[in-house]
Amino acid sequence: MEQSPPTTSPEDTTQPESTIKILISTDNHLGYNENDAIRGKDSFRSFEEMLAIGGREGVDFVLLAGDLFHHNKPSRATMYRTMSILRTYCLGTSTDQRISLVECNLSSYRVCMSALSIGDGTINFQILSDQSLNFPNFGQVNYEDPNINVRLPIFSIHGNHDDPTGEAGRSLAALDLLSAANLSDRVDEIEVFPILLEKGSTKIAIYGLGNMRDERLHRMFAQGHVRFRRPEESPDSWFSIFVVHQNRDNRGRGAKNCLPESFIPEFIDFVVWGHEHECVIEAEESIKGDFYITQPGSSVATSLVEGEAKPKKIGLLEVRNNNFRLRSVPLKTVRPFKMAQVCLRDHKHLDPADPKVADKISAVLAVKVRN
């Protein structure tokens, strides 16, 4: 596998029809800190910017790696803002913009793979997999519904923040609210069935695994209880993408509270890793050298850690046959966040016995922030 889809040349005018362009993002955390007068709209601004970039770049679809919402029971204000943004940027044509969301589980656990929508009104790829497995509520992806004008699909797994929970005898996720309004489809089916897409000569298999408790998932992988179903016909001709939302074992520590790279099947070509908020968007070769990993990171800072202070980006992935190219796009609406350390022992005038030491420390920190 080579990390570069071929560039289009005048002699090869068929290549654009075989290039699948994907916008990659994760951990949007819509609704984070929504009651804060200053930061309450940050998550929505970045999400809206992301959709605008997708439309401008003409991507075929958007791939999200979990935690679209910050809470598994979003407030009415968050749901309203989310649906308003999707209505503006998603369904319909440029003069008739609506929204569609399809959610499906891709494993016998709660693997929630969903499809939203944006674009120019033309879907240039086909789904070849059994849609009754991917989308059992209606038996098909919603952009094939003649009653809905979908502009561009968005596929997403659920994360640990917006995971399904038991309520009134059912296991429901936030996206089920959209399903009840006929704006999403949900499936329940750990046996992972891929969504199979085809555009020209390029074939992509997307495997989605929604968040589970890390220790349980580690044990199931170790015992061989997680199975990935490959296409029956010419399985090696598919570019396989694995979307996951778990702790990442990128230090080789071998702990059970993460998903080791060694558990990922060798036939996987590209992994989109959600849950980790630090942006490491550039594709990294796996420890085994069998596949590449991108870690988009969150689109909004939700904790005061060093990794959140790095620039926030999304990825534009182009796939042609078995080649790919990944380009990063910085998000401009992200609120600046800087982090630094202050060693109080370097400030000799601070006396722990001073009753006003707390005020003096605050003054030192205020000077540090201003500078």
TrEMBL record:
<dbReference type="GO" id="GO:0000724">
    <property type="term" value="P:double-strand break repair via homologous recombination"/>
</dbReference>
<feature type="domain" description="Calcineurin-like phosphoesterase">
    <location>
        <begin position="20"/>
        <end position="81"/>
    </location>
</feature>
<dbReference type="GO" id="GO:0042138">
    <property type="term" value="P:meiotic DNA double-strand break formation"/>
</dbReference>
<dbReference type="GO" id="GO:0030145">
    <property type="term" value="F:manganese ion binding"/>
</dbReference>
<feature type="domain" description="Mre11 DNA-binding">
    <location>
        <begin position="324"/>
        <end position="370"/>
    </location>
</feature>
<dbReference type="InterPro" id="IPR041796">
    <property type="entry name" value="Mre11_N"/>
</dbReference>
<dbReference type="GO" id="GO:0006303">
    <property type="term" value="P:double-strand break repair via nonhomologous end joining"/>
</dbReference>
<dbReference type="InterPro" id="IPR029052">
    <property type="entry name" value="Metallo-depent_PP-like"/>
</dbReference>
<dbReference type="InterPro" id="IPR007281">
    <property type="entry name" value="Mre11_DNA-bd"/>
</dbReference>
<keyword id="KW-0378">Hydrolase</keyword>
<dbReference type="GO" id="GO:0035861">
    <property type="term" value="C:site of double-strand break"/>
</dbReference>
<dbReference type="InterPro" id="IPR004843">
    <property type="entry name" value="Calcineurin-like_PHP"/>
</dbReference>
<dbReference type="GO" id="GO:0007095">
    <property type="term" value="P:mitotic G2 DNA damage checkpoint signaling"/>
</dbReference>
<dbReference type="GO" id="GO:0030870">
    <property type="term" value="C:Mre11 complex"/>
</dbReference>
<dbReference type="Pfam" id="PF00149">
    <property type="entry name" value="Metallophos"/>
</dbReference>
<protein>
    <recommendedName>
        <fullName>Calcineurin-like phosphoesterase domain-containing protein</fullName>
    </recommendedName>
</protein>
<dbReference type="GO" id="GO:0000014">
    <property type="term" value="F:single-stranded DNA endodeoxyribonuclease activity"/>
</dbReference>
<dbReference type="GO" id="GO:0000723">
    <property type="term" value="P:telomere maintenance"/>
</dbReference>
<dbReference type="GO" id="GO:0097552">
    <property type="term" value="P:mitochondrial double-strand break repair via homologous recombination"/>
</dbReference>
<dbReference type="Pfam" id="PF04152">
    <property type="entry name" value="Mre11_DNA_bind"/>
</dbReference>
<feature type="domain" description="Calcineurin-like phosphoesterase">
    <location>
        <begin position="149"/>
        <end position="279"/>
    </location>
</feature>
